[in-house]
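[09:14] KT: can someone run the structure on this one? pasting the chain below
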Amino acid sequence: MSKKILIVEDEKNIVDILAFNLGKEGYDTLEAYDGEAGLKLALEKDPDLILLDLMLPRMNGFDVCKAVREKNRSTPIIMLTAREEESDKVFGLELGADDYITKPFSMRELLARVKANIRRTEMLTAQPGEAGSGEDQRMERGRILVDVALLMAFKDGKALDLTQREFELLKFMAAQPEKVFSREALMEHVWNYDGYVGDVRAVDVAVRRLREKVEDDPANPKFIITRRGLGYLFHQEG
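[09:31] RB: done, structure tokens below
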């Protein structure tokens, strides 16, 4: 069955170009030209991915993203933005967007990101049914337990309220404790962007949000450690 992409963008020429190129790649598309219509389609049609412009009539992209996440939908969201301000991009990521791409963008890059996010979702969907020993499915790391089969993580026996991305990030790093991963490596392995070179602020935002939920004191992290100039590691606290 073809994957379904929702395009929420008020510039018809951009919608037409996106729909044409996505169609050539075998995707079905839905189109909305304002935020309210986009949110309605997102909740009713349950697309496999959303391409979401920030500057929209009737309801901006930030509010659409926030509303989708408040409905506990984990649909991958890629923001389309003409803005260069870092604060806008970081704010969108904080609200739960998976990534952003700045206009004008390369169609090749956009298609690669669409494919990567859909592949990541498919991998997560397949995981609960995968064969494996109980030990493989449960990673006990001191006070932290990552249960791959349940797609849940626990601290001191209490379930952590993690987003899909935060769980993936914790799972990947906890699988190799004390190993330092560069931001580019995390983009490649957790975001599924092969050979990623580019803006890595999405990693820093995800790490900050993960620390807020995992650490006793996020300002003084004991589990997700920064190695300045190198990247991040998971420390198994005793």
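[09:33] KT: thanks! The first strand starts at residue 4 and ends at 8.
[09:34] RB: yep, looked fine to me
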